[in-house]
Amino acid sequence: MKVGHNCPNFILSDPARGGGVEGSRTLVDPSACGLQDEGGNNVPPSNKYFYVDMKKYWIIILFGLGLIYRLWLIYLSPQALILDQVQYHDYAMGMLKTGLYAHSFRIYGYPLFIALIYKFTGIISTISNLPWQLIQVVLDTSTALLVYFTATRLFDRRSIANIAYIICLFNPFTAPFAGVLLPKVLIIFLIALFFFLLSFFQQKIGFLQLIIFGLLLGFSTQVRPFYLYFSLIAVFIFAVVCFKKLVNMKNKVLALIVLLIFYFLPFSYNVLGNLKYFGEFALMDVDNLFIENFYIGLFLESSPDIKLSIWDYPPEVRWTFETYSYATDPKDKAGREARKRMFMDLAFREIAKDPYKFLSWRIKKLWYAWEKHTLYPYYNPKNNILSGFVYWSNIALLAGAFVGIISFFKKIAKKHNITARLFFIFSLLLILNTFAVGAATSAQERYSLPAYPILFIYFAYGISLIRELTRGRTRGRSSFSLDIRKITHLPLLQDLS
């Protein structure tokens, strides 16, 4: 099918090569638009409508299949409500009972999500897991939609978005977490939402953009504290962009104030809860759970699976779980500080015993956090073929994503486009954050999952390039298209300058 240059409603590329519908969907005269088949004949309006509807039709069908796939995974191997899930459930119940609640080493982001489900459904986990599981199934499947629409905004070949959408819908890495009471599904969705909104970032900076990004980055940190430094650096980058793009000093200062206020606003619940329950001012958890994770990481080289019994861990790890515990938590600030100092002292002594082991393990953990050995977080079928499929499909994903990242960088180096460059910078920042978390902790494989929506996009782009090379196609123009004119101008995003 060919499209004439006078038609505003289509991308100027062959749909067979991944090009698709762009802009308005209003039916126009095919002869005026230049919509023709390969023989040069005008396509009737009904055919044009059929083409557009089929695209939407398959998106919906695949979305439905994605829902069924996640429900099937839950049915295939139900995961018991154990370990960390119990703490999130208890936190949610505490919020429902008292309104303002605090936990010494958990924060409220994910428990709030669960508490809202309990509140509006009237069903808690001790009665049935189905309500929150169904909502997480829909949420995780919706992440694939965000991946799809983000890819359509970045690339002019619809095939890239299609590949990313299908891989995200039916991946064996994030989907199994829809059936467990862990924050993975929520943080994965929030990270995907951040990058989707980032694809709308324009030369003109608006208050609404700053408010949305501030709230999103601040709340994401409440869901997974590991993303605190990612969010802080992201806020700094947005502040630099504001100061660079805005001319008026008053607007620069105002933009910075708005960004900081809405970033720190989600921290207020933690602050109030910590003051009420622990008499201590703290933006995050008062116990600083990272210290426990850091110490445990000195005795666990890798974590290919989650141990279901405490006796499966080394004695140092068992002692840590018993000592750095909510049940044995000191009742005053001095006691908590003393415990934190004790564990940090023990950690440095352990490092001093064998610095080479410490450094070599840190390097290995950079990779271990990206490995995937099991389908489910807790109970897994005894199936070597399934485990091998999960492991090697992950290797293939990482390899394809690496090709896509390198190629993406080469393209944006030649294009002066703020959206493209910010997308790459934040992608790189997210990946580096994951490396840092893995190296500093026990390198659990689930820690890298929030970066996977972005990896799906880069994988699809990398596969597209590899396919081009294998087919021997050399084209003068790139498949990459990030012309600022393609970015939709949202209402309410007003120019601050």
Give a short summary of the structure.
The chain is mainly α.
How would you describe this structure in keywords?
497 residues, mainly alpha, 2 domains, 18 helices, disordered N terminus, disordered C terminus
Describe this structure in words.
- The protein folds into 2 domains: 1-76, no CATH class; 79-486, no CATH class.
- Helices cover 61% and strands 0% of the residues.
- The chain has 18 helices and no strands.
- It has helices at residues 30-33, 45-76, 84-98, 109-121, 130-154, 158-169, 184-198, 207-223, 228-245, 249-264, 268-278, 289-296, 315-323, 333-353, 355-368, 384-412, 418-440, 452-470.
- Helix 9 packs antiparallel against helix 10.
- The longest helix has 32 residues, at 45-76.
- The relative contact order is 0.12.
- The model is unreliable at 1-38, 43-54 and 476-497 (pLDDT under 50).
Reading the helices and strands in chain order gives HHHHHHHHHHHHHHHHHH
Rg result: 25 Å
The profile of the biggest β sheet is: none
User: Shape, please?
Assistant: globular
How does the SSE layout of this entry go?
Blueprint lengths: L29 H4 L11 H32 L7 H15 L10 H13 L8 H25 L3 H12 L14 H15 L8 H17 L4 H18 L3 H16 L3 H11 L10 H8 L18 H9 L9 H21 L1 H14 L15 H29 L5 H23 L11 H19 L27
Helix pairs in contact: 2-5, 3-4, 5-6, 5-7, 5-18, 6-18, 7-8, 8-9, 8-10, 9-10, 9-17, 12-14, 15-17, 16-18
